[in-house]
Design goal:
This protein is α+β, with helices and mostly antiparallel strands. The chain has helices at 2-22, 72-82, 84-87, 155-158, 185-190, 268-274, 283-294, 329-347, 396-413; strands at residues 34-42, 93-94, 99-112, 118-132, 138-152, 160-165, 173-175, 180-184, 193-199, 212-215, 218-222, 229-230, 232-234, 241-245, 256-259, 265-266, 323-324, 356-361, 390-395, 422-425.
């Protein structure tokens, strides 16, 4: 048995040695995976949730006024030269409710994992311009690349890059389809522009105003064909809300499109001055708004703690107190009625004549009016006494024309302010 055991042990040892000699060689190591990654970047910075909204009292640029253009080239130049700070955020810079732009810069390099050197790179500036139409349910976006520089291997020419704009949906159509376009990096260098048109058919959408909205985000991606190369993907470089409506006559043009996350400011003084220096014709309305915002001791009703809303205050961040348009004529009449109680209380019965009107701030055409903006709307007949507003007697022509020509036509209709839309009020002397 001892001899047999020895022979078995020798056989096992010999087999191990033979297997060790004849085993296949270890497989060659896999090539390090490569990938595109961003190494320089600005633009698309998030805006803090408590940041104040963008606003100004500029007249809309599609009104045909001299010097106010809305071509992509002009808007791009103004955006980059004068408003680069705001334009480099996700929200971009908004000239008004129809004109908007975003800018940024990216350098993207192709590297292998763990390598300190790059294989190829592309570097570029980008500008996205959006122009919405007052009169049709359409918005046009133009993306352009400038200072395009590509270095390194063949990948800098042949690798595809895709640009996408979100917002296409059930009520919104995009051309090109899906709002995206892809071509090799070398083709972007020679054809550095991309155009997307978003449209929404008339009288499609939600409610009596046929509202349809699109959240527009921009994404870019370098998408290699080889699965061994990681792509570069940059999402949510921009954001903005486009609103399409068919609100009809109350909006001026029956159909239109705006960037609804821009809150415009009504400045009666600025509008009257721009209209052939007519500020003296509406000096009483201008003074009344100014007093309601800045000189409460001159206003009625009078009570401690009165604080009329409407004025923009950057220090409040997102906690602003704008006015909101009211289109319901029954409630507008109620607002005028209860504002009239203030005029009667202060100036007596008969103060209102064919030549004198009871003017009010906040306006009767807002949710903050004397009835809808006070406890009168909750069945308190004396709610007007603690209304955070002001009523006074002013000239009839001053009151009627400033309300119709400037608030209604120039501002509400010019900016497509619809029912419930917020807006600010200012008197900048």
């Amino acid at each position: 048995m001892t001899s047999t055991t020895s022979r078995i042990a020798l056989l096992i040892a010999t087999t191990v040695v033979v297997l060790g000699i004849t085993a296949p060689a270890t497989a060659a190591p896999v090539q390090p995976q490569r990938g595109w990654e961003v190494t320089e970047s600005f633009g698309g910075e998030p805006v803090p949730a408590d940041a104040p909204p963008q606003t100004n009292s500029n007249p809309p640029r599609d009104t045909g006024q001299v010097g106010l253009t809305s071509t992509p080239a002009d808007l791009k130049q103004e955006c980059r030269s004068q408003h680069a700070g705001q334009a480099s955020t996700q929200l971009g810079w908004m000239a008004d409710r129809y004109n908007r732009c975003w800018i940024g810069h990216r350098k993207v390099e192709l590297k292998c994992s763990g390598c300190s050197t790059y294989i190829a790179s592309v570097e570029f500036d980008y500008t996205l311009v959006g122009i919405a139409q007052n009169g049709s349910r359409q918005v046009d976006f133009t993306l352009t690349f400038d200072d395009w520089e590509a270095l390194g291997g063949q990948e800098r020419e042949t690798t595809p890059m895709r640009v996408s704009l979100s917002g296409c949906g059930s009520f919104v159509s995009c051309n090109p389809s899906l709002g995206e376009f892809s071509q090799p990096l070398g083709s972007w260098r020679t054809s550095p522009q991309f155009h997307v048109t978003m449209t929404s058919a008339n009288q499609t959408g939600i409610g009596v105003e046929y509202l349809a909205s699109a959240l527009v985000n921009t994404s870019m991606a370098i998408t290699p064909v080889s699965p061994t190369i990681d792509p570069w993907i940059d999402n949510n470089m921009t954001t903005g809300v486009v609103r399409f409506d068919s609100a009809g006559q109350r909006a001026g043009m029956h159909n239109g499109t705006v960037f609804s996350d821009f809150i415009p400011t009504f400045d009666l003084l600025a509008l009257a001055r721009a209209d052939n220096e007519h500020e003296t014709d509406y000096k009483e309305s201008i003074q009344h708004i100014d007093d309601a915002l800045h000189n409460l001791n001159r206003t009625f009703p009078s009570f401690v703690g009165k604080s009329p809303p409407g004025e923009y205050n950057a220090s409040l961040g997102a906690n602003q107190r704008p006015l909101h348009r009211l289109v319901n004529e029954t409630l507008r009449i109620k607002n005028r009625e209860y504002a009239g109680k203030v005029c009667t209380d202060v100036w007596g019965e008969g103060a209102v004549t064919p030549n004198l009107n009871c003017d009010e701030y906040p306006f009767a055409s807002t949710m903050e009016g004397a009835y809808t903006g006070s406890t009168a709307s909750t069945n308190n007949p004396d709610g007007w006494r603690t209304w955070h507003g002001s009523s006074r007697i002013i000239g009839e022509v001053d009151n009627q024309e400033s309300g119709n020509l400037y608030l209604n036509i120039a501002f509400y209709q010019g900016n497509r302010i619809l029912d419930g839309d917020p807006f600010f009020v200012a008197i900048e002397r």
